[in-house]
Structure formats: structure tokens, C-alpha cells
Design brief:
Length: 125
């Protein structure tokens, strides 16, 4: 089936749920800019600094995967639009990534302090 280029999210979702791969690609492509800007906004709001451009690309990739999940988890029950639902899913994904990276850094820092203290205790003996 050939889909028109000016379909809205709900029309694309309908075709996606009918197993139309072209509609899935179109919806992902349609939301690429949203993924980028949402990711950038959440990173800035949390004062997170990506160590490399590869890390930023990794976050974009994870956010894109989260959009895939949002597509298949969305239920049009009138409480929330797909746009808002997908935005919140992407935001939560990026926040989770940042929390994980910070907790990992804190863990590594705590281990370094602990090892430093152990070395100092051995020096005192």
C-alpha cells in the first residue's frame, strides 16, 4: 500500500497497527526532530554534559527506541494525545539514562574514595 505523505499521527498509527511497515517508517521519520529537541532540552534541564558526541547519539538512539515502544503502547482513550504521550516517554527515557550515568559516576567516585582511604590506612600502619 502506498501511503500519502501528509497523514496525521492517528492515521499512521492505524496503518501501523495493521502491520504496515511503511507507516511505521513515516511516523518515526516525522518525529525525528521531536526526538532531537526533546533530548537536547532534557539534557540541558538536568545540566548533564555528554562526554562525547557518540554519547549524545547513543541517547538519541535510545530515545528513538522509546518512540517505537510508545507507538505500540499508546492507547487512544481520549486522555492524552499521541504527541504528548510520545514526548513524555522520550523525556522519561532520557532522564532515566542521565540518572543511571550519574549513579554510575557516584558509585565509581565512592569506590575511588574507599580505595584511597584503604591505602591511607595501610600507610598509617
Amino acid at each position: 500500500m502506498t501511503l500519502g505523505g501528509n497523514m496525521n499521527d492517528y492515521e499512521l498509527l492505524y496503518y501501523i497497527y495493521q502491520k504496515d511497515e511503511e507507516a511505521l517508517k513515516m511516523l518515526i521519520e516525522k518525529h525525528k526532530n521531536n526526538i532531537y529537541f526533546i533530548t537536547k532540552k532534557v539534557i540541558e534541564q538536568n545540566s548533564y554534559i555528554c562526554s562525547t558526541s557518540d554519547e549524545f547519539n547513543e541517547i538519541i538512539h535510545l530515545a528513538t527506541l522509546e518512540l517505537y515502544q510508545a507507538i505500540f503502547n499508546y492507547r487512544d482513550d481520549g486522555t492524552c494525545s499521541f504527541q504528548v504521550f510520545s514526548q513524555k516517554c522520550i523525556e522519561m527515557c532520557v532522564r532515566k539514562y542521565i540518572r543511571h550515568r550519574r549513579s554510575l559516576s557516584n558509585y565509581q567516585f565512592a569506590n575511588a574514595i574507599s580505595l584511597d582511604n584503604q591505602v591511607k590506612e595501610c600507610d598509617d600502619i
